[in-house]
């Protein structure tokens, strides 16, 4: 972990424990977020992106468990902290905003009270001071006449306004890291753009890092510095945003980008990625995308692909970019020697 | 708000009017002649007939009803057929007794239900949860006559902590009055507490799934803070509803409990008056009960809007 990393997730495994068995959902993912950087985690529903964010917050459901790996925040491993230590970090150094602004605010409390609550909790300010801070925060996120708004209830605000309130609440203790789990999905397109712009502005003003969970590549292009593409609990591609859009390598990433509707080309039918994500208990042994991949060979089904690194930290997990791909494609078999060559392969053209 | 209150008051008058018609008709179709009961079985038919005319019992029913209701509106509930005391006087003696029993029972119920409901919801699936479910189940299934006798047996006869039965007005001897009320209040309150525990548990469990609860944790609140500051108030609405209905029925008198503990409350009064065909007393007491139920429902509706600002009290359609 470099000293500039705000958060580094190393070999993280997360799953659900029931009485008999442990179902692994996230299988050994790695990424890091530098100070002041925005990382987008992209993937379709059920790929484990929300679970990743909840693991960082320590807010996994009761049966959820981090079974292996480290989550280093400012160099401190969060997986080893107890509930009390974790509650001092939550809402203070790491904050989170959620997808549904309609239901994420408590309907029976005034919004001023809800924002002040975490300020009083973490910064030990008096109620009066916290209320003033709440007004400042509302001003910061662009809510008009904040001194009146603090006396309103969530149902009296629109969806976009509520998400602004959520952001104000999340930022009220100057967190170092903001995790946003699809914060614009439930909003109108025009409001989406406003919220993204606001987040970009605040990131620079407050020098914080952002992890944005999304399935919307439009959002990614607006806000990301780096992108982590996840598929079925594994990282398939990790890159900075320009490289990813200019030169997507993994067949899954390519599929995602191709399936964005384009106005300047005439398309009869929008390309889709055929099939659906396999369920955790029927994961293919090899590459998890192999069941839907147009290039898949026998080897892909049976051998986990190595990580291939390219320029500027571009990483792809795919057999297609290994030096022995030609042989793999022809023979459909892999021996020990080929595994070694594969692992040493460099990604060309990124 | 004002229009809501006015509308509810209007509705209250209509409901009370309908209740008065029903209770008057029902009481008057009861077999048994009050005049005969008053004079005794040996009275001559002429004397009974004379008394019937005096009491107005031979007038057509609608005339009798009109005479009665016009007095009721003026605050005169009539006089008991039995001893000629004013019904209002009788009610003035009985209502405080029932009120005291109701308040203490409700207090007992809340005292048990709040902690039991919270613990079993927040510790779902543990021994705590199972014990409180067991308690709730037993509380609902034990009939009051059995529980009452059991309590007297254990706490009065066995341990001698409380007097077994009787009643002393609160202002005469507060301590003794409370001591006498505790066992009946537990008998009545346990049942309500069991219902409220179940209600609070399921309502809390549902609320704890909400996204704003997750927001609470994400803010850095611990479990206690989340439950007390965010979950409880949202979970209270069904609890208040059940409390309102139950307290309304308590005010109608807990006949069995009152009988076991010799508490001279409304329940006993109504039963005795029905047996002696003391129509004015029955009618007066039932009118009071109807009023109490309507009034409590009104209070519950007001409480909803205090608990949940999304519920607006408006005069128009909801």
UniProtKB/TrEMBL annotation, chain A:
GO terms for biological process: peptide transport. It is a peripheral membrane protein. It holds the Pfam family oligo_HPY. One of its GO terms (cellular component) is plasma membrane. It is found in: Cell membrane. Residues 9-257 form the ABC transporter domain. One of its GO terms (molecular function) is ATP hydrolysis activity. The keyword Cell membrane applies. SUPFAM superfamilies: P-loop containing nucleoside triphosphate hydrolases. Keywords: ATP-binding, Cell membrane, Membrane, Nucleotide-binding, Transport. Coiled coil: none annotated. It comes from the Bacteria. Belongs to the ABC transporter superfamily. PANTHER family: DIPEPTIDE TRANSPORT ATP-BINDING PROTEIN DPPD (PTHR43297:SF2), OLIGOPEPTIDE TRANSPORT ATP-BINDING PROTEIN APPD (PTHR43297). This is Peptide ABC transporter ATP-binding protein. It comes from Mesobacillus campisalis.
